[in-house]
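The pair is quoted verbatim as follows:
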Amino acid sequence: MPNRLAGQSSPYLLQHADNPVDWYPWGPEALERARELDRPILLSIGYSSCHWCHVMERESFVDPAVADVMNRSFVSVKVDREERPDIDQVYMRAVQAMTGQGGWPLTVFLTPTGEPFYGGTYFPPAPRQGMPSFRQVLDATARAWDEQPEGVRKGAAQLLSALRRAQEAGGAGDAAAVPGEELLDVAVRLMARQYDPTWGGFGGAPKFPQPVTLEVLLRQHARTGDPEPLDMALHTLRRMASGGIRDHLGGGFHRYAVDARWLVPHFEKMLYDNALLARVYLDAYRLTGAVDLREVAEHTLDYVLADLRDPRGGFYAARDADSEGEEGRYYLWTAGQVLAALPDEEARPFMRCYDVTPGGNFEGRNILWLPHDLETVARAGGIGVNDLRPVLTRARDTLLGLRMERVPPRRDEKVLVGWNGMALRALAEAGGTLGRADYVDAAAVGADFVLAEARRDGTLHHTWKDGKAGVPAFLEDHAALGNALLSLHEATLDRRWLDEARWCCEETLRQFWEEGAGLFHDSSARDGERLFMRPRDPMDNATPSGNSLAVELLLRAGHLFGEASFEEVARRAMTREAENMVRFPTAFGRLIATVDRAAAEPVEVAVVGDLEDASTHALVRAALAPFHRNRTVVGRAPEDPEGGIPVLQGRGAKDGRATAWVCRGYACRAPVTTPEALTEQLTEAASL
């Protein structure tokens, strides 16, 4: 019979609804039951596209003997880390403090009142490679609680004390000591030491994309003109785009590569990875004009729209790594399958390009990747590269059609506001820059969806699924959404997005900013659940931290609205992390990029014109096309009020035509009415 998870909306929890384990979802019922029975809590945290979470379920949670021990000795609680990042964050930090490592599945043992006292990640069904079996862990933990409950409580109290001291450490937030551009120099030197000059990326296997790190490299080049950071970023971007980590048929990127060559991916696809990577490919295109980088950005966003978009406009969280019980099965090919699907004149060049061999390049089958550039392959085949490209396009289309007949990996169809904010921002910025009205429209529809469905009675929520919004929103949600709304205004000049972005700023300050300490918390002081610690992690992980997103939002909005108080809070938050940014620059990539934004002289572009007119759109595209370290684009229709936006004061359409003003250093150039003239002024502004 289904357990208590059967009534949950989370796909991850529903995957465990038929386990023989008497699972509880996190909530008062589970905590009250633990206190009533005086039993420890076994907290298991994962997410729907987590491969090793599925493995541990198959090996342990469906085993009646293991379930019997769990049901007799513990109150077992399941948490979807994507729905409850606050719970995941505080208990992950505890496990990292106890063991020196973390990951998912996360397995934590708590006192009946919720304090952690032991934990780990994946435990196998039998002892191996120095790891105890899960059954051994269960037996030892239950015995410790039965025989020495006070000793266990004392150890938990000592751990909590150490965790709280570590979280409270930090600077005083003196705005006069705001870090400056030298942080980029420090960060780039460290990145250069970790850089892999052969395959790109940083460090060895496993290798993660790290888009915010690449953002710092692009900014360093834009600031100094030094070619080395740009070379590192471009080589990494191109190696990833050629690697198996990218889905060459359907588009988008997998989570990470298990090897150093980007060949063998961990096959899950996450919304946030694809949103962040699309933006960094777009920025690299803005900086270089390289068409191949633009193509990757568009291919990635096309995937997001095709596969992860809800019919109402929001975006789903992820695609699983597994299909038919096997990781990667959906994406792999044999040479025989390719030869059967394609005519010989397409199959042979396709197989040469994408490394498809009879023996396979991964466990007897083939991951599609491009180990050599197309020019080299074309020369070896005695044809021109322009003749090769259409052959490969036809072959990819054929194989994609065949792949779509396979059983697809499960899709996690919950909508997470923070991740949606990242996707909406990428779509708005790419659409405005590239003239892709479909991207801008998708961003607008998605923003309307989030604001209508995830915001109820003036309160933003973190999740939405099946018509229901749940869990009060976190700092990341408000800040990522606010940044997306600012970018959506830049692409559309629609005033309503500014009003909603300002609401995000005000809620960010009201709910998450602690004035006395000069810091942001990740959970709301008003709506957040009281855990044993209030979550706060200023470091970037797979996504930029809520802290860095909030600082970026307040800097952008403060300048645009002329709101000095927003910028003051942002500077205090940056200053508090100044020492950490110097010591661990690769863990603070987005915040360091924001420091660079704050240090750069602002370039403002004001556009006044009919919002439906092609000439207005052309000016917006010209304004967004080049890469600038600190650019703001703002505008309105001629009949709309200036609305208290400083750079719009006194601006009107010239002779009834769409008109743009470029301002730098609080001095504005003569108004222009053509994209060519606007491009020329922006080029001059960038060279000063």
Q: What stands out?
A: DSSP finds 26 helices and 21 strands in the chain.
